[in-house]
Specification:
The structure is a homodimer of 301-residue chains.
Chain A: E1 2-8, E2 12-18, E3 24-31, H1 35-46, E4 51-58, H2 87-95, E5 99-103, H3 104-115, E6 124-129, E7 133-139, E8 142-143, H4 176-180, H5 182-189, H6 200-221, E9 226-229, H7 238-250, H8 263-266, E10 267-268, H9 276-300
Parallel strand pairs in A: 1-4, 4-5, 6-9, 9-10
Antiparallel strand pairs in A: 1-2, 2-3, 6-7, 7-8
Keywords (chains A, B): ATP-binding, Carbohydrate metabolism, Kinase, Magnesium, Metal-binding, Nucleotide-binding, Transferase, Zinc
Cofactor (chains A, B): Mg(2+)
Family (chains A, B): Belongs to the ROK (NagC/XylR) family.
Amino acid sequence: MYYGGIEAGGTKFVCAISDENGKIIDRVQIPTTIPEETMGQVFDFFQQFELKAIGIGTFGPIEINKKSPSYGNITETPKTPWKNYPFVKAIEERFQVPVGFNTDVNAAALGEAALGAAKGLDSCLYITVGTGIGAGAVVNGQLLQGLSHPEMGHVIVRRHADDTYEGKCPYHKDCLEGLAAGPAIEARWGENGLALAERTEVWEMQAYYIAQALVQYIVILSPKKIILGGGVMKQKQLFPLIHNYVKTLLNDYVPYPELSEKIDEYIVSPGLGDNAGITGSLLLGKLALEEKAANGLTARG
Amino acid sequence: MYYGGIEAGGTKFVCAISDENGKIIDRVQIPTTIPEETMGQVFDFFQQFELKAIGIGTFGPIEINKKSPSYGNITETPKTPWKNYPFVKAIEERFQVPVGFNTDVNAAALGEAALGAAKGLDSCLYITVGTGIGAGAVVNGQLLQGLSHPEMGHVIVRRHADDTYEGKCPYHKDCLEGLAAGPAIEARWGENGLALAERTEVWEMQAYYIAQALVQYIVILSPKKIILGGGVMKQKQLFPLIHNYVKTLLNDYVPYPELSEKIDEYIVSPGLGDNAGITGSLLLGKLALEEKAANGLTARG
């Protein structure tokens, strides 16, 4: 008996099977097209295995409030064919197992807290900087969730003095995502990030924006570890620049070594590399099974 | 048998006694001077009662990490006589009961979630805007805590176009607290808030800053209710201005009625009025007792 996991992204789905300890046994990659097509391949993959539970970490926004009639759906999304897609219902009906459901970034935070850079900690923040910017968090050992899931990519930042680019966010123009996600970098500088690797002014500005966002996350959430993933963060020269800006902005206000001399151990790359999301998705399945067992006990008790 | 609570503020301590349900039976106010003097009066008050537990909600910064050797202490503070004061140890040694310990704003958030404006919700944010700006939060039914307690008053905001005041925060100059706490209002406009009640430009600017901070809190924490307390928020004309700015800034990005047409039920005054902090402090005592009982069971099990 295995766990199944789905990391649902805008360009591809990663599906995987793990054992009890989260070790990945088999995996497949499926292009994200329309639900009928993509989900058909997802079903084909999983039906090869006997599964105890399936976890989904997906692009959003999604409805994660279990009391809502649209729980388990993708809600608003520019990826039109997926709008209002009942993700949890589709998987439950097909496989008749408990289904865990959360954002891709919350899943990645869970994966990193369980088996990655934040292993052993009851608190961490995972941020992806790529086509968009999103973040998930573990707080007191649980996934962060309230009215909705966080939308941390849309924090307000101060503009860099040399930045005349208006910003790309369709809702807020120059929020963090509007100024610092991959498409904004390309629109501002006229080339994509890979071609700009040697231009120091690009990464100075990028670090300035990301560091401001991290300061907001730190004073609001006080995570025990911050993990920066996503395509843009493959530019490793960003890390020391971000470390310096965060230290300067905080100015020793919170006197913890993690926020000063040990900051390079505090703001880090994913311990699981590109597997943070799928690992967390598999864990979401395991949590769904445990929750069902606990509810069963309560009902019997 | 009763619960004791201490709301420790920079100018006064409120001490109270409650029954099992959080109903306040007796209370006293003690000026904050030096620990020997203030705590002497605190001891005198509590020794009149038979107590099961005592909760402390205090000004900070404080050490709330139970694994730290300085757990239970006030740490850095401009109130020099209280620097490194071992608050929990002093109360434990004197009364030999379980002691709960957290920030005044986390206590207020707990009080409002249990018995106030966020009653019945497992998530809320409490912000005080007064001599300083601080906030506490309940997330998934638990007090928000990570590396340290939050320091949300120090979020970064964009400057208002008409604001030439440099900011008063000794660490960050023009963070939220530096631009929008009571002393900043007085320094910018030359009079204290009460005397400025009729000047609309004062409250427009104030709402602009507070609304930006709320947007940061919303996209990062997604609280189910936001409660604004403290002296500055007695200027009730601020509420509609803040509601409008928050709506404008979010621009329907998170499509919840709480963040658009129902925003006046979402961002509200404390349900417990000035009693949020002391009510939460009493509950911290109750939680400390329950935690001790649970640990005892585990140890026996």
